[in-house]
Queue: 2 jobs
Job 1
Amino acid sequence: MTGPLLELDKVALHFGGLAAISDLSISVNAGEVLAVIGPNGAGKTSMLNLVTRVFEATKGRILFKGQDIARAPRSKIAHLGIARTFQNIELFDAASVLDNLLLGRHRFGAGAWWQQVLRTPGLTRREEDHRAKVETVIEFLDLSAWRNARVASLPYGVRKVVELGRALCSEPEILFLDEPASGLNPEETRDLAFWIDDIRTDLGITVVMIEHDMSLVSAVADRVVCMAQGRVLAQGTSAEVQAHPDVISAYLGT
Ligand SMILES: Nc1ncnc2c1ncn2[C@@H]1O[C@H](COP(=O)(O)OP(=O)(O)OP(=O)(O)O)[C@@H](O)[C@H]1O
């Protein structure tokens, strides 16, 4: 594939009279960790909600591997290989860690109804494949101690890891993380930095991370985009973006 893995091309999103995103163009290269930073209300989560089709762009194109997905059905997004986590963790609290992770496999299907009724060998094989993949994710994220625990009983930091695990179970090509470090203690944030690096290096998954914690951004991002008022204000390395005068003014509100 030539060109970026994902490209937002002059995208806009309006809520009534409010322009949450205006003329936004961002490229994501395969294999990179891109951090998106910006002050509150800059449009970072809206951008992610456009790519994952929670919202529909008012204008512009969103190209994933060259295909415009700006108006694709929401149900198609996971099938294309795009996964995400949420700012406010979205898991099934009453279910176990294992069952939540198995839900991450839904894009690969549960088998036709007749296979389920007849318990065909094909279905059994498919279920075994799902279990095996989930076990690799449990090992990768060091979740084995929590495998059978109900999500509701888990500490906040572990729930965040489970949500990351569920996204990985869908074997995405690109993974969006919405404020992955929020609510984590320094040790958990350090673990997260290692995992993000391993997700890119060992699993070959491209990562786009919306994050306020600049220590995490500096530790893992190859490139940083700073958004403000629904647009790109600056982009470059973490050091370049943090030193940019427009970025400093946007954070100071001047
Ligand atoms: N569903 C919605 N309806 C109306 N306005 C919305 C909606 N979602 C977001 N907005 C508005 O769009 C703008 C961008 O919000 P968004 O949540 O994308 O910013 P953000 O950069 O992610 O902020 P934060 O860092 O605080 O999460 C804000 O003015 C917000 O109030």
Job 2
Amino acid sequence: MAAPPQLLTTTVLPAVGALMLVLENVRKAYVEPDGKPLPILDVERFEIAAGEQVVLRGRSGCGKTTLLNCIAGLTTVDSGQIMVNGRDVTALPEAVRDRYRATYIGFVFQTFNLLPAFTALENVMLGMTFTGGKPDAVRAAQLLADVGLAHRLIHKPRALSVGEQQRVAVARALANRPVLLLADEPTANVDPAHQQHVIDLLRSACERENIAMLLVTHSPEVSQQFSRVEQLELVNRAARVA
Ligand SMILES: Nc1ncnc2c1ncn2[C@@H]1O[C@H](COP(=O)(O)OP(=O)(O)OP(=O)(O)O)[C@@H](O)[C@H]1O
């Protein structure tokens, strides 16, 4: 029988000003159908401090989602180090990495990744169980109320509009009080009124709980609200030559 995954029971509270995310010499290439490598990431160094909020921009296909997936350990890198809250996620065995992600990283996926068989409330509560902890229905309901979905708790994703599904995804990403939030175009399918609401919600949650945030957006209205905006092509050699 396989050994049980190493438990991560100690929450390390980040020191103010500490680096929450550090990438060093990260390279990632996909393999094309004809077998040729397609270089996507070649990042010498990229860092985000604890509690810092950073926007990531870049042309379509330049590697933004790939970068977020690598940081979350959902995609493996070819070489380099990705330190999240002081641990190199690229060096963790898969089961430990899954638990580490659930404990320290919140992820709002571009495609939401909600589980269709479960209600909005259950989707948020399920995210809480991935850390090995007990789901907290009251907190889950409060997070959904915070995103304006108090009246949609028992609806399954197919009964929610695209924008509502996106807001469930935001609530789920905050459920485990992460230290790093990765948000991949979280307002892409939200109407303008809710767009600002989602951004305000993400920002205030990050400020309140000292969560560092890396937010991908194509929206100039969103990015102009942030003091640090990174263009992926400027930090990524692979994107510059592509
Ligand atoms: N699994 C894969 N295998 C091969 N190529 C892939 C794979 N995933 C992504 N790509 C390619 O890698 C490139 C970067 O994709 P990625 O999704 O990271 O871009 P992006 O900057 O997030 O784009 P967008 O702004 O359109 O969402 C694209 O050319 C894409 O087609």
